[in-house]
Design brief:
The structure is a single chain. The chain is mainly alpha-helical. The chain has 10 helices and 2 strands. The radius of gyration is 22 Å and the shape is elongated. The N terminus is likely disordered.
Length: 232
């Protein structure tokens, strides 16, 4: 979100600020206050619940496919049950989140690419790390690509998992193909999730935004320069 410079008068504490500035109560003109409502409580719940289910799914998959982990954990039937049900429940938080207008609005933003997104990708290819070379709205192009990829991967994993689970409803060749695709896509998801977690830990302010719903104005201006108040 961008902000406009202004003078801090004595009525700032009681007079609602103009929407263009994105300035909340108690925030000064220097842009050092908090930027409210990057993510609503519903969006944070969806992200947190989906993350927990995904981690359970990946962890149990590791216990099923890595012999050393299988021996360490044991209780294969329990691990299989946790894996199956965490996978089945993965789409549920998103479906519940559709009841929130903020969540629906952000899904729409994630589904759109703008000219500044192409500029962001070009800067990544050039390995240009300067913030001004990577303009972004509320979500940058990398976040949009990740969201689209993980959503598609979850649906494929759900479909192939069901084919593997209900063995009596599909021919052998379907089940064999589903198992092959499920296993290799699971590996790809694990690698991508590690990258996602690593990038999140490299950006404490982004984590704070997902944890509390607000971020620093300076960070928003630097990392999401095209993010306007009307996008909140």
């Amino acid at each position: 979100m961008t902000s406009t410079a202004g003078s801090a008068g004595p009525t700032d504490a009681t007079t609602p600020p103009p929407s263009e500035s994105g300035r909340g109560p108690g925030e000064g003109a220097a842009g050092t206050g908090r930027l409210r409502r990057r993510f609503s409580p519903a969006e944070r719940w969806v992200h947190r619940t989906t993350g927990i289910l995904m981690l359970v799914c990946v962890a149990t998959a590791g216990c099923l496919y890595v012999p050393q982990l299988a021996e360490l954990v044991g209780r294969r039937y329990l691990v299989v049950t946790l894996h199956e049900w965490s996978g089945l429940l993965l789409p549920v938080p998103v479906l519940v989140g559709l009841a929130s207008r903020h969540f629906r609005a952000d899904l729409g933003r994630l589904n759109r690419f703008f000219p500044h997104d192409k500029e962001w990708l070009r800067a990544v290819r050039r390995r240009d790390a300067r913030p001004e070379s990577r303009p972004a709205g509320k979500f940058n192009a990398g976040q949009k690509i990740y969201a689209a990829w993980i959503a598609g991967a979850v649906l494929v994993m759900l479909g192939t998992g069901l084919l593997m689970w209900f063995t009596g409803f599909a021919p052998l060749v379907w089940r064999t193909s589903a198992t092959f695709l499920h296993d290799w896509l699971a590996l790809a998801i694990g690698v991508v999730l590690l990258g996602h977690i690593g990038m999140a830990y490299g950006d404490p302010e982004a984590r704070r935004g997902m944890r509390t719903g607000s971020v620093e104005r300076a960070w928003a201006k630097r990392e999401h320069s095209e993010w306007r108040e009307e996008d909140s």
